[in-house]
């Protein structure tokens, strides 16, 4: 599954176009490597996503083409959430 679609289906990012933009800006990493929107993600991969002043690291647990809102959180496990200090 493409990373932009995973971010949208898992509801980490609301819209696929926004997920694509975030990926293409170099703010998403898979297993420590830069990920573009077309990069494929597998179960067990670690994703790091930078949201403004926050960086979230998750592990992919499940891939699904579509999901209900209640089930979206089962697609990943939150490993780490870091806040950056502004200077």
Question: What can you tell me about this protein's structure?
Answer:
- Helices cover 18% and strands 30% of the residues.
- It starts with a helix and ends with a strand.
- By secondary structure, it is α+β, with helices and mostly antiparallel strands.
- α1 packs across α2.
- It is globular and about 35 Å long.
- The chain has a single domain, classed as RNA-binding S4 domain (Structural Genomics Hypothetical 15.5 Kd Protein In mrcA-pckA Intergenic Region, Chain A, Roll), CATH 3.10.290.10.
- Pfam families: S4.
- InterPro entries: RqcP, S4_RNA-bd, S4_RNA-bd_sf.
- Associates with stalled 50S ribosomal subunits. Binds to RqcH, 23S rRNA and the P-site tRNA. Does not require RqcH for association with 50S subunits.
Structure described in brief:
By secondary structure, the protein is of the alpha+beta class. The protein is 18% helix and 30% strand. Helix 1 crosses helix 2.
Which key phrases capture this entry?
87 residues, alpha+beta, 5-stranded antiparallel β-sheet, globular
N- and C-termini, Cα separation: 38 Å
Task: Report the CATH architecture.
Answer: Roll
Percentage of residues assigned to helices: 10-25%
- Would you give the CATH topology? Structural Genomics Hypothetical 15.5 Kd Protein In mrcA-pckA Intergenic Region, Chain A
| Spatial shape | globular
Largest sheet: 5 strands, antiparallel
Give the mean pLDDT: 89
Order of helices and strands: HHEEEEE
Number of separate strands: 5
Give the CATH level 1 class: Alpha Beta
Low-confidence stretches: none
Write the layout of secondary structure elements.
Blueprint: H1 3-9, H2 16-24, E1 28-30, E2 33-34, E3 46-51, E4 54-60, E5 76-83
Antiparallel strand pairs: 1-2, 1-3, 3-4, 4-5
